[in-house]
Design brief:
The protein is α+β, with helices and mostly antiparallel strands. It is built from 12 helices and 19 strands. The strands form 4 sheets. The chain has an 8-stranded antiparallel beta sheet with strand order 13-12-9-10-11-14-18-16, sandwiched between helices. A 4-stranded parallel beta sheet has the order 3-2-1-4. A 4-stranded antiparallel beta sheet has the order 5-8-6-7, covered by helices on one side. A hairpin with a 4-residue loop joins strand 12 and strand 13. The longest helix is centred in the last third of the chain and has 17 residues.
Amino acid sequence: MRAVIINQFPQKKCDYEQHLKDVEGEFILLTRKERMEGFNPEFFSEIIGLENFSNSGLVLASILEMHEKKPIDYVIATHEFDLLRAAQLREFLELDGQNIESALAFRDKITMKEACSEVIKLPKFKRINNVIDILLFKKGNGFPFVIKPVDGAASVGVQVMKDEDSFNKFLLNPVTHNMEIESFVDGEMYHVDGLYLNNKLIVSRPSKYINGCLAFHSNMYLGSIMLQRDNPMFERLNKAVHNVLCSLPTPDHAIAFHAEFFHTSTDEIVFCEIASRVGGGKIVEAVKYATGIDILRESVRAQCGIPTDCVETEDRLAGFLFVPPQVGTFVSINENPPFEWVLELSTKKEKIGQTFEGASSSVDNIAVILISGNNEQELKDRNQRIYEWILENTTWKLIDVEEEKATNGVL
């Protein structure tokens, strides 16, 4: 067996050697040049680092050249922005795995919503081809509404139009391609994460976001807490995600999934979106702590033809939070909180010395913290407690952003 891995993560985030060390075969790693460090050259037959990795045509060209010299059997991809090009490779090379139809259904939010429109409640939505589409949607539905990329991630580019003032400001700039417009859903937001195969949820854990995915606009932290099994939303969300997954084209092997839903004040569950990959932050670690199953490991192994045969060995609760950057220069952070319920604290040391204007996305952070708890309320309280502790134990050099821009010749 010969497999090529398209990778964007650092080795600590996705340790392919640990996931595949018992698998007999040859593994080739294509990765961002700055991510090469840490991967074991003795495990991989070749490690290739490329510049401009997300957009470079050399990624596909390199793999096709490899295949001509010696056939490739599997293509493995773990990052949201690599799923479609991995599918394109599989179809061109006639390999097993997720195809283009499936990848598009999980990447394009319009295609996604159209596919599951009969099994879950949806916001009103429309693909944007030009400004006229936006004006007609506004006329028919009024404020508020949301404009966002059809293939984005981490809430980047998501804009909420609350009134004419915010809308007119939006219209000052050109309307870009690959955008959609949809009605704003006022409700609490949840995510569901797990593994799916052949119309069955192998593992599925619903969680509730604390502060929501657009909290970074107000410089608030994004947190998450797992639901208890006796919470009525636990089964309702699992049923909702199962219905969505069954309505989408999926490969013959297990896939990891990360889905998001709204729960409205009228007790309706409304679909937001779903991805055929693991969620970010500490979702992989939280699910592993809660169930004993490493959904990233199982996803990687499934993509190279290894049957998925895992069962839950734990039944615990976990949560996590992103600590967003402040407005200023990041000076230092204490990495040793005095709480036994803090399971992991991952800091972005490489960001020390950098100047920020706050967070730029829902997952933009200087640290991500994994916590445990005995119930939902305890998880929520501990999220707030560790966040306050981090604020007290992080040093920032406050700046005047406009003055800093002028000093650097930006204005």
